[in-house]
UniProtKB/TrEMBL annotation:
Origin: domain of life: Bacteria
UniProt source species: Streptosporangium vulgare
Domain annotation Thioredoxin: ranges: 46-218
Name this polypeptide is given: Redoxin domain-containing protein
Amino acid sequence: MITLLADGHEKPIAGAVLPHGETVLGWERKPHGWCRGDACVPAFRAAAAETAEGVDLVAFAGLLGRQVVADLDEGVIAVGEPADLPLGRAPEFGPLTALRGTKVALVFWASWCGCRYDLPAWEALHTELGGYGFNVVSVSLDRDPEAAREWLGEVTHPAVVDADGRIAELYNVINVPTVVWVDEEGRIARPQDTMTATDTFRSMNGLSSERAVAALRRWVIDGDAGTTSRELRAPTGDERLARLHARLAAWLFRAGRGAAAERHLARAAALAPHDLAIRRGLMPLNGVDPFGERYFALRDELESAGIAIYRPLPDWQDERV
């Protein structure tokens, strides 16, 4: 038996070749091809993934433009999101769908980041600007949901925990705090930016919360997003692959298979050394203090390589704003 990690779910499957007659990643075999809703993969293309024994899961995912990392020795396969998601629209998840018709600030944070102390300020903005048709949705990148929940006790805004890293993958989030603005039609109004709601750690990150919050208010009240960039920054193939290795590493750590998990974590770090959402985010599952020496060694490593911890620098930090 193999565990399939895909589309935010864990599912047991008999093997990497699925029997004929089963749905595959939500797609169903019909006479003219494989279909999911109105979308179809024609039969002549799907034939490349079909065998006498069944449907090759890895090959079928490839037809859909989805990367796969399989560790059959450990009995787990992870399937990533499609590579051709529209960059100008906000990928749907959980509470975001229900908030269509309002402006939304997606606030990515984690308990292993000082930005956890900004949550009350984001809650205050959610309340203050709610009358203008605005909502905050906070997304914790904690791999352990319990670590996030202790910081969410007082919030009323929609909050989710991205324990499997799927939302971070959809929005190409490589560190926290990261904020994405989504307009009333579900379009990206401002892509992934480092943004703080307080100056608690300004001495470390150099960011002005006053300017950032002023820019947010202008967008909510006046409709001025202050940028011409209206698409999410797309991940590279290596970044996408790194997130799948991280997903396997998290699953293996939880299963008590530390040696196998560390192999996948090392591969993820090699593919995307700058991705702190992976490298720091998995530290707690590995028994490592995310505020300790290993984290500061990681910071030194990235700074020595010329890789910025907080990037890209939002233009509201410029004197023009």
